[in-house]
């Protein structure tokens, strides 16, 4: 029960971080990320202005990309591929040593949905979805409405 309460508290913080970036992250959605180890927040970030860096990338940068044994709380499924190349957020989390990822809602992009979760589970991370999904989904409504349709 205590872990579930902590999970909700950390996800609520991630949602607050994303909310603060509403309207500033186009063409990407606003995303919040909180990284916790042993019950202590060790890094937090939101998607940067103009959509870069992604929230996970910015949070991990605060830790010199090392988060051994940590849990990441993210409002949106960490990306499984990057349009400009480079490491995806899911790969960054794997390489940083994160062992558990809790994200609120799946990436709605027809090009990205479920790629992040697949990459993380294949690497052995514990991945949990759906925590505060409605709240997180409300933050990306404009992004969803402007998504291209996959041919």
From TrEMBL:
Chain ranges of the CMP/dCMP-type deaminase domain: 5-128
Record GO terms (molecular function): 5-amino-6-(5-phosphoribosylamino)uracil reductase activity; diaminohydroxyphosphoribosylaminopyrimidine deaminase activity
Protein name: Diaminohydroxyphosphoribosylaminopyrimidine deaminase
Pfam families reported in the protein's UniProt record: dCMP_cyt_deam_1 (PF00383)
Native organism: Asticcacaulis excentricus
Its EC number(s): 1.1.1.193, 3.5.4.26
Gene3D superfamilies per the UniProt record, alphabetical: Cytidine Deaminase, domain 2
PROSITE patterns documented for this protein: CYT_DCMP_DEAMINASES_2
Alphabetical UniProt keywords: Hydrolase, Oxidoreductase
InterPro entries: CMP_dCMP_dom, Cytidine_deaminase-like
């Amino acid at each position: 029960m205590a872990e579930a309460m902590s999970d909700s508290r950390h996800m609520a913080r991630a949602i607050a971080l994303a909310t603060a970036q509403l309207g500033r992250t186009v063409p990407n959605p606003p995303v919040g990320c909180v990284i916790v180890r042993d019950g202590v927040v060790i890094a937090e970030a939101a998607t940067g202005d103009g959509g870069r860096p992604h929230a996970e990338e910015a949070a991990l940068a605060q830790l010199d990309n090392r988060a051994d044994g940590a849990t990441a709380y993210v409002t949106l499924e960490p990306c499984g591929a990057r349009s400009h190349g480079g490491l995806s957020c899911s790969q960054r989390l794997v390489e940083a040593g994160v062992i558990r990822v809790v994200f609120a809602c799946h990436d709605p992009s027809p090009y990205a949905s479920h790629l992040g979760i697949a990459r993380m589970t294949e690497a052995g991370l514990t991945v949990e979805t759906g925590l505060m999904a409605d709240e997180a989904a409300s933050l990306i409504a404009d992004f969803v409405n402007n998504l291209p349709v996959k041919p």
